[in-house]
Write a structure and sequence with these properties.
alpha+beta, two-stranded antiparallel ribbon, disordered N terminus
């Protein structure tokens, strides 16, 4: 048990979670997910939510040690009330009872755009600049995780496909380029395509958004559904992508068409008109590099100048930087999620997304306070500060 042993650094860490995820919000997602405990327990559901969030902040620590940090802060906040530390087995059972849904609902409740109109790179001609992309995370090498998630295969000398080192879950996210905040995400098995997960994110798009995507995403079906949301699109296409020249425009861009698949064409589907922007990057010696080809549903060269679109597309790399901070700095390079069962792995993933968003929110608040670009503030420094001191223990009422 712990009695008033929470150090200042623990209070700061827990306080970040309390501010980013208020107790009332946590209670609401527990109720919405049906995860409310049926009897009085040492580990009520709301406390387990904060415990799982704390695990995400301290991926290099065992569960018992993380719980001692949390319990010490709670004991201090309650002014001397003793908090009992459950066993590792009890903590694991409590996580199992909670499941992944409350953490997913919590992320979806609090995650969202952080850029203001004054945030550098946050907007382009009145549109919020967003980017789509995907990544994978290793989960524990257990039969249950292989069954749920699958993973990359390797071929044996006999030609058989063998399982890779770890099963993996696939994540597709929508990032805000001006802040590197991951504002929405979908999770599935390794075998699920990025395009299939992207379709689940489309209802979140709409007018006033400009969505960037790399060459893995363009295709007739996904493009038509994304464009139907009212969002403006600027996606790169690969060199093998067929884009017949229909009309050359004054600025050198041209109108082309995305042809529907044969079965849809037979059913009456029509080609989709897109505008193509082609350009080269220039190497240090002045020679041109590979050709970049972008397609957009912004067809008017005056309203969307080609040079601006070419420069704007490279904001797409901000989601790569976001994934780098998420997987390498918050989770840790080479760190495999703790859980040996699929529900626990998904719970961890949503908790990591919550923790990442809380830190980005902290960075944006600091940037606004100091009148700086949030992309110029170090994620590692913010994470170190959070893992050191945090908090407002009063956010955890008895």
């Amino acid at each position: 048990m712990v009695r008033d042993e929470g150090g200042l650094e623990d209070r700061i860490s827990v306080g970040l979670l309390a501010r980013a995820f208020p107790r009332a919000t946590v209670e609401a997602v527990i109720e919405a997910s049906g995860a409310r405990e049926q009897r009085v327990r040492m580990l009520p559901a709301w406390l387990v939510v904060y415990y799982v969030l704390a695990l995400a902040l301290f991926m290099d620590m065992g569960g018992g040690r993380v719980m001692r940090k949390l319990a010490g802060t709670l004991a201090w906040a309650a002014r001397g009330v003793t908090v009992v530390i459950p066993s590792e087995e009890a903590l694991s059972r409590a996580r199992g009872r909670l499941g992944p849904l409350p953490l997913r609902l919590l992320f979806e409740q609090v995650a969202g755009p952080l850029a203001t109109t004054g945030t550098p790179g946050g907007f382009w001609r009145g549109r919020r600049v967003l980017s789509l992309d995907g990544t994978t995370l290793d989960v524990q090498d257990t039969p249950a995780n292989w069954d749920r998630f699958g993973g990359p295969g390797t071929s044996s000398a006999a030609g058989d496909v063998l399982a890779g080192g770890f099963p993996q879950m696939r994540v597709v996210a929508l990032a805000e380029c001006g802040t590197r905040a991951l504002i929405a995400a979908r999770v599935a098995s390794y075998a699920t395509s990025e395009k299939a997960l992207t379709i689940e994110l489309l209802p979140l798009l709409g007018k006033g958004m400009l969505v960037l995507a790399d060459r893995n995403f363009p295709g007739y079906d996904l493009w038509s559904q994304a464009a139907a949301t009212g969002a403006d699109l600027l996606w790169r296409v690969g060199s093998a992508f067929e884009l017949p020249v229909r009309t050359v425009l004054a600025d050198g861009t041209y109108l082309s068409e995305l042809a529907p698949p044969r079965d849809q064409r037979r059913a009456g589907a029509k080609p989709i008109t897109v505008r193509v922007v082609e350009y080269h990057l220039i190497a240090a010696d002045g020679s041109p590099t590979e050709t970049f080809a972008l397609i957009t549903n912004m067809l008017d060269p005056q309203a969307a100048p080609a040079a601006e679109l070419a420069e704007l597309y490279h904001s797409r790399w901000q989601i790569e930087n976001a994934f780098g901070a998420f997987t390498s700095q918050l989770k840790g390079d080479g760190v495999v999620l703790r859980s040996k069962n699929p529900d626990g792995a998904e719970q961890e993933l949503w908790a990591l997304l919550c923790a990442y968003h809380a830190i980005r929110e902290l960075i944006c608040a600091a940037a606004e306070l100091t009148d700086r670009d949030p992309l110029r503030l170090s994620f590692v420094d913010a994470l170190d500060a959070v893992r050191g001191p945090v908090g407002d223990p009063a956010a955890f009422p008895p």
